[in-house]
Amino acid sequence: MQDQANTTPTRVPWNKGKVTRAKPPLRPKHVWSIRTKLQIEGRGRDLAMFNLAIDSKLRGCDVVALKVEDVAASGYTADRATVRQKKTGRPVRFELSEQTRQAVDDYLKAANKGPSEFLFTSRRSPERCMTTRQYARLVSDWIGSIGLDPRLFGTHSLRRTKATLIYRRTGNLRAVQLLLGHTKIESTVRYLGIEVDDALAIAERVDV
Fold first, then answer.
1. DSSP of the chain, one letter per residue?
2. Cβ–Cβ under 8 Å, residues 156 and 164
3. CA–CA distance, 176 with 182 (Å, rounded to integer)
4. Could you tell me the pTM of the whole model?
5. Measured between alpha carbons, how far is 89 from 181 in angstroms, rounded to an integer?
6. Is the dihedral of CA 149, 151, 155, 158 positive or negative?
């Protein structure tokens, strides 16, 4: 009797043979359009979450895990905050603009949350944070509401937005690395999609 070969099917990656690209950042006009729409519709939680995601440049898993004390330990939203990233375990600092602080303060006042509570809670249990899946659905909703194709953007689009603008305006790759919490500069280069043309464009702005 011959030994039977292992017939367990080999799992094929979902993206094998497909061209996949990183989700692009939003443009400033897109950011302002989403903000304006959320303000007009009175969606305080979504406005606070959107602004925090843009300013913090955090991964989706870290955005949903934020607690009140992470950004508003004294009762009012701070202009800077520090959180520990789930992926790397390393702390990362970020700044909060005036409009973000105002949006978060308004949301906290309306939600009446305590310092140890999650900023954005699950629909099923107020004691748990919002899931990354729910966050991704919200992002798709925000994107689609201003006429963009939600399939082309994602939660990483929000993380990339401000980081990309900072790099394009300053050319300071090290600063962007610190703001994104990357351990290696190569990761930042790949994440921003920096090409030779980008580097040359920066060099052309410098005279010696």
1. -PPPPP-PPPPPPTTTTS---PPPPPPHHHHHHHHHHHHHTT-HHHHHHHHHHHHH---HHHHHT-BHHHHHTTSS--SEEEEE-TTT--EEEEE--HHHHHHHHHHHHHHT--TTSBSSB-SS-TTSBPPHHHHHHHHHHHHHHTT--GGG--HHHHHHHHHHHHHHHH--HHHHHHHHT-SSHHHHHHHHT--HHHHHHHHHT---
2. no
3. 9
4. 0.83
5. 10
6. negative
Query: How far apart, in whole angstroms, are the C-alpha atoms of residue 188 and residue 184?
Result: 7
Q: For 5-54, write each residue's pLDDT tens digit.
A: 455 556 665 445 443 467 899 999 999 999 999 999 999 999 999 999 99
